[in-house]
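Listing 4. Sequential folding, example run.
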Amino acid sequence: MTRIIECVPNYSEGRDRGVIDAIVSAIASVKEVKVLNVDPGEATNRTVVTFVGPPESVVEAAFRGAAKAKEKIDMRLHHGAHPRSGATDVLPLIPISGITLEECAELARKLAERMYKELGIPCYCYEAAAFKPERKNLAVCRAGEYEALPEKMADPERKPDFGGNFDDTAARTGASNVGARNFLVAVNFNLNTTSTRRAMAVAFDVREKGRKAREGGSLTGKLLKDADGNQIWIPGTLKGCKAIGWYIDEYGIAQVSMNITDIDATPLHLAYEEVSRAAAARGLRVTGAEIVGLVPKKVLLEAGRFYLEKQQRSLGISEEEIIKIAVKSMSLDDLKPFDPKEKVIEYLMEDPAEMAVKERLVRMSVKDFAAETASESAAPGGGSVSAVMGALGAALATMVANLSAHKRGWDERWKEFSDVAEKGQALVKELTALVDEDTAAFNRIMDVFAMPKGTPEEKAARDKAMEEATLYAASVPLKTMEASLKALPLALEMAQKGNPASASDAGVAALAATAAVRGAAMNVRINAAGLKDGAPAAPLLERASQIEAEALALQDKVLEAVGLSK
């Protein structure tokens, strides 16, 4: 899985567009980082910037943003409606995919240390990055705001995690709060009522904080307190959720507005189900949900899989179809159209021009791909065609699994076939990517031929580049072989246990996967032969022969199972 984190720093400037643009430009100067949103506020005199990318790139961009904020913002002159303690006030790192919260916390601590050592900015670490339990709460770190820093920095118990005296740098920059937290999903649940009071009652039922306890359990009874005089609270049913009820003039309905601060404890789909239950208990109905802002792809994929499981349907369908199930199950398009391309972080990160190059072949129609292959160009060639055959073999095995999951009378076996289909979908995705990667490997060799070779140094560099490119060109078809081999046990299982009406499809799946293995093996051997150093070639050739033998044996078993053996 691609490693992606989000960063949502808040800078103490919301009025001077020149300052804001300078900070955003510093962030955007880091390769692979994509700025998704810039939200300045005049009254708060504060700007929230949202950007995403690989962890190391995002951390570097966060550092550059803090450096530019130090240069452009003087906290001695700052006034605004929002609490603040520094020019870069809060700087959270948020795991999106392929990375844990704990890893983000460690990155945040190192970033805070670097900000102090290289920029002189005092830093508190908060939430998951906190060194002290009480500093998990941002309000504790920012207590007293900027004006309290001289006193706090002189107190060993309250001074920043990184920072010494309140010197000239600290006076200018204030103290930054660097942390790590889970992604926050903001969602509004639409109710079939105009009553704010009833929406608020549902919000109290489900939010973690719950509601104040009253005599008789009524909404208007006398407040109940404990022996120490403290208010007694009745907790709600959803962990890591904050919620209120309100009325929206634009839509003419009441909503339960919720922030899910821990999507691991309470995924979006479970929040939807629980708000629906609590609303029904009060005679109301949830008509849909409205996601505010962006979401990681996994939020919708988890929701889609949840509803597919409830329907006892196969999970081995495309990513796009799973997300469509999520959208329809929670009526995310109830109030306005919901376009995943505009709401999902991973999709927003994609560069259309870059993806058009990276996926040039797989985006073609079958007719165009065949025409491209038949042209005078040497690529795409046998390697890419082998990857296509492997993808089609895996796809056919997946199709048989999905048809078997829906076969009348086999309802109790849906999970068995769904598991096979999920494996098949993963292989289709892997092999599809290899179609273009194989051609890219060929082009890499062609690029080496264009390198200069006049001087001894240039010749040495060219020879090294050719060896590396040739090794890569041999390794890519080996990956095609490995993935195509994995499709054969799926074809065999479907030939033996799947829908008998699709037995021939399982046979074709095996033939296609085996052809992919044997075709890719030719590319491994011809490219390995071009390696000057025989040592790297030996394991490639040995593994290729092993895979080919295994594939042929599995193909025979599949053909025997479907009655197509000699």
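-- end of first protein; second protein begins --
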Amino acid sequence: MFRSIRFQLFRRARCAALALVAMLLLPVLSGKALAVTQAWAKVEPGHSAMWFDVSRSGEGWVLEVLPGDGAVLYWFTFDDDGNPRWLGGTGRIERGEDGDTVVFDDLYAVRGPRFGPQFNPADLVRERQGHATLRFRDCESGIITFDAYGREGEFALTRLTRTMGSGCRPAHGVPGQPVLNQAGQSGSWFEQATNGQGLSLTWLADGSVGVVWFTFDPQGRPYWLTGTGHLEADRLVFPRLQSARGGRFVDPFSPAGVERRTWGRLELRLDCTTGDAAYTPTEPGFAAGTMQLRRLTALAAPACPWVKPALTDLYAISVTELPITVVPSGLQIGTPPPGVALPPWQYGWQDLVLATTVADDGTAHGYARQEPVDYISLLPGEHPGFIDPAYRARFQPIILAPGATRWERTGSRSDGVVPIMAHAGTLLYNHAVFTPYGIQTGLTPIHADLSGPGFVDITFIDGRFPEPYWNQAIAASRDLRYAVGEAGRVKSGESGIGESDAYPWKWSIDGGQEALPARRALYARAKPLCISDDGSRIIGAAWPAGAAPESADHSVAVQWDGPRLPAELRNAAGRTLILPTVCSRDAGIVYGQWRASDIDADNKVAGFWTRDGRSAPTGPLEPSAEDPRGWPYVIEHVSADGSLAAGEYADHDDPPARDALLWAQDIGPVRLSEVLKSAGLQPDWPRIHVRGISPSGEYLLLASDPIRKGPARGDGSTIHTLLLRLEKIHP
């Protein structure tokens, strides 16, 4: 198969995962490929995969993206009589402003050697049969245009497999899809003594292994086998390889006419450069045997052996300190009551800047908490005396464009709103109102369009809940067509929430607000925390009847799926995720805590749950012999795809030091104080908090606790904020 330099593909390549056993069983989904007129995608290492045309289930293409913009293509197909045959060639990636093209000037077919002991490389006949180009719309689809065996055509390509460590994944990995040390074995392998045949091996993202064996039948005709396997001790075991026949090259092709047969068993033992194979056919005419394998191609990523990267291996890190001042509001405070003499500083207001969310372009949003200077400076339990408690604090939304030197106020309301989400120029706000006693009595969700005048209120759930009640938006879809939150009664003289006091709701731009089914017989309270962008799934927390409403020890994670009652989120072992905190934009990845065991209920660890059944702890931070669990931490922010998460931890000192952390599948938990040090910035802050993460995960907002400006009362306080940027380092 790989005799000449040209047909030996290259010395290094990327793996092309071939789980054709699955592909051959796929139903016909669509018709002929159609040319598209749109911008094409950049070809990345993640395009190394097995691809197929859904209307031609039974044949497929294996693409290996190589280092240095090289590429390898295998096309396993059939001749006009339905017999298996295959083509292969080496190519190059041509980069262009309108997207990239993978060009294969020469596609070769081979024949001649006989399978088994009679294999003679001298019998190999190699014939040029055409050429092909591939272009991709995105990471999931593309087209192949070809001229082969005297026929021209174009087929639509759909991804069938994902390669472990490179399958168009985030640089930092996918939760629940760890990269194994041997993942870099993906690529092409051959035996020198039987030069002309070979194996294309792929470690798949789910931990299984795919293989395509390009070989010959006992008569010297081209033949190919496919299978999926798994790791057993030091062996890759493929219990059932399959052969196929019955398709046709180009037209007419009927997936129903493709016949699959079990051919036999294959076992491999591999390191990063060499290995051996043992095969046991059950198909008549094929003899059992072994091969001594050598690597022919290696993918650009992952390396072999794979080594856990540091954050700085994946991203260039930069830090910008954001301003702490706001464009003046001109807000004035009234004069003190008659007979009260106060220093001048007690007549002023200060803006305490709190950044809360950041968009993909680095635009930061937040609010200025306008407070009387004497109030912000008071010790706990003290009161300002003359200032009307109704004016204790005012909230006003603010925005900081990239490169700006001061925060700008937005909107026309001066009584205050708090932004909780920002995306594509729109915000979701909560409108805060305070009583003279400092108790929050109303929280109105507001949908704000920064390009228009003012704000548009989301209406209350009129008539559904007893008054007086509070109403709070908690999360929304990125296009703000859907939102979730809570409403409930305020008990006279109390600020807390008791059983049956809180009611979950969902809002849509078309249908307004409606109550969510709460399963009151089982749960005293069910609180929604996030909603998928299509509005179909909602993740929240529930507290069983009799449990404290906000107790982490008694909460369980639940999901509303359409109009159904909430169902608990359980892993494969039946254990329930507790205290969910954040989730991805499709509500398919949820972060929270797992109980380490049913016996020790106090032993809780941070972890995640995914809709497709994966779940795991996110790993210990700073484990030691004294405390193998490491420092406790919680995940509080997440990128839109759920792959990059951030939170806070506390060490075991007394009092504990607190810091911010970042987590991803491939890098594990990372202390952000150490990241700041590596960037040459070591802020002298009592604590570091993560305030927000952009949907793309490129930007993080880090903030300090309020820091008093000076020792004297009335000096006021400030909150320092940093914008940390992670710029991907392309291989």
